[in-house]
Amino acid sequence: MEIARRRFDTLIIGAGGGGLRAALHLSSADAHVAVVSKVFPTRSHTVAAQGGVNAALANVRPDNWHWHMFDTVKGSDYLGDQDAIEYMCRAAPQAVYELEHFGVPFSRLDDGRIYQRQFGGQSMNFGGEQAARTCAAADRTGHAILQSLYQQNIRARTHFFDEYFAIDLIKDHEGYLLGAVVMNIANSELLLIEAKTTLLATGGAGQLFRTNTNALINTGDGMAMALRAGIPLQDMEFFQFHPTGIAGKGMLISEAVRGEGGYLVNADGERFMEHYAPNAKDLASRDVVSRAIATEVREGRGCGEHRDHVLLKVDHLGAETVHQRLPGICDMVRTFLGTDPAESPIPVAPTAHYTMGGIPTNRFGQVIVPLQHGPEEPVPGLYAAGECACVSVHGANRLGGNSLLDILVFGRAAANHIVDYLHENRYHKPCPTDGADPALARLARWEQQGDGETVDHLRTELAQIMEENCGVFRTEEVMQDGLDKVTALSGRMGDVRLTDHSKIFNTARIEALELENLMDVALATVASALQRKESRGAHSRIDYPERDDVQWLRHSLYHRDTRTVDYKPVRTRPITVDSFPPKERVY
Amino acid sequence: MQTDNSNITRNRLAWQCRRGMRELDVLLLGFLEQRYPQLGTGDIDSFTRLLEYPDNVLLEWLLGHMVPSDRDVAHIVQEIRHAAVS
Ligand SMILES: Cc1cc2nc3c(=O)[nH]c(=O)nc-3n(C[C@H](O)[C@H](O)[C@H](O)COP(=O)(O)OP(=O)(O)OC[C@H]3O[C@@H](n4cnc5c(N)ncnc54)[C@H](O)[C@@H]3O)c2cc1C
After folding, report:
1. Could you give the ipTM of this predicted complex?
2. pTM across the whole model
3. pLDDT tens digit string along A390-448?
4. Do A335 and B55 touch (CB under 8 A)?
5. Chain A to chain B Cβ contacts (< 8 Å)
6. Do B81 and A39 touch (CB under 8 A)?
7. DSSP letters along A28-94, please?
8. Which domains, from first to last, does chain B contain?
9. CATH: 1.20.58.100, 3.50.50.60, 3.40.50.720, 3.40.50.150. Which one for A437-569?
């Protein structure tokens, strides 16, 4: 089948903060850039980020990048790569000032400097008192970032393919990445975008789990595309559960609520975080709070009819304060629960939130893969940044406010490297004639007619299994069962049929492609989780409750073709400063 | 042909309901699934117009924080909020 072709210097798949930051840098450097996004760019998931972005500006309390680095390494439960973390924390103030320059209206102090709020896991002096490091544009930080970056990109003449769905990457026989096959959702027409460099910036995979805080678009497409191109996924067992999603529904109740003085209680009305984190209490890092809630629930102190959640109290702050300081949260609770948080506490439970693992990259954004013998090497022409990537700055657990920072810093870092690559590689390499075949075969499969299982059904089942068998609490038995079930479910994919084969906005076909992606990413997640026999950060096992640095201070790599997991060392050496050796994590 | 066109409109709207936030996905898609068959052409026009607004504006309206000045859009917003708790 002959499909239309377009050529660009760089193809960026994903128009969230990561993709747009990279695109802007490239277009400004006169590269010819295409950005593909399955939804209109400013509808990307980055728009949901309300809390803010971390940078050691020291505007509210003393701060410096080295403390930020310490907190990030500690928060990562020492699994983060310290060179990448140093790079990110040093680059943070610059990233924020750049946003200011692009027009992001940060909230300010009376003297005009950027206001900074307190978030969990932030300290002064390497583990001392609470720091204030998070910069926000009211509670619309993500929206403001996307909007500004999008406008700047339009000005810089970035070429957008809005509502195009990327199906698969194209690779030549030497292993060079040469672009991707994409589909126009409006009419199902295919387009082969040839590019000297391709950047994956497709965001996370929160839809793996039934109760999650993520938009429906977060189906791990880029991660699955990488897997199918023979690239392993790194550290997929580390999935962050936000401690406070609305129980059973998933809408996020931001840390800001606890930052303003809200706290958690169990069925006995007890302020239980005092037992789990005597200093930080309700502001301890996310994995600590999630696990505390899960423990309360497991030990029978949960609230509600099913005793499956705890309560987040803010009523003691007074109605005026609550309504004034947390208007967004109040409206959300009224809309989805029909109650007023100033009067009744909010039922909350740990909710799938952030994908720490992803496509392995170095701190230049290059996708790196292990060689048969010897160290890793970059996949020529392929980059990844943002939530779909694993650089790895979040390690086993991400700190709030560090993800927006990650996408900005590494979106730009990848673009920097791409600029150099484009200087050295001036011409397009020829695209092999069979380059698009795998993508076409996948599509053809969905044209099969007849009866079968439905996409919806399998997707619901998958999310349920993942929640039950790969959630906050994990054991060998539970996860083995999970792996068996997901494997069986993936075996049923061949029986799934579409009933709608139309061409115009056929969302059913898109959802089928998303399900294939979710299935691959789910297998990677459970398989990696089952293998890691320790507890670290978000990966918490009842049967291996301790962190084991001797055996497990290493990154996992899941390979799709063999369905196996192998490992590589953590980069414990920073760029210029001394390494932070693993210590017990107490808050 | 009538139903073909209607299907296309529904599918197009369904994709426009895919947003960057879970809250919006739940409210908009929930409404479309529950109420699309009963919507008249006027309502479909208003819903289409509503979906053209940015996510943060939709969130403010749908969470009842603000009310749209366009009366028809305001009406659809009310309907969506009703459908959410029904
Ligand atoms: C409710 C919520 C609140 C948050 N708050 C904060 C916060 O306060 N601070 C913070 O630091 N972090 C926060 N985060 C995390 C942060 O928002 C995300 O990690 C970050 O925005 C991800 O950005 P990204 O650029 O990697 O991807 P995204 O913004 O998710 O963008 C992904 C892009 O890829 C495109 N795409 C995906 N698949 C395909 C495909 N197959 N074809 C074409 N295009 C595709 C999408 O259309 C989209 O444009 C929050 C997350 C949630 C869920």
Report:
1. 0.94
2. 0.95
3. 999 999 999 999 999 999 999 999 999 999 999 999 999 999 989 999 999 999 999 99
4. no
5. 96
6. no
7. HTT--EEEEESS-GGGSGGGG--S-EE----SSS---HHHHHHHHHHHTTT-S-HHHHHHHHHHHHH
8. 2-85 (1.10.150.250)
9. 1.20.58.100
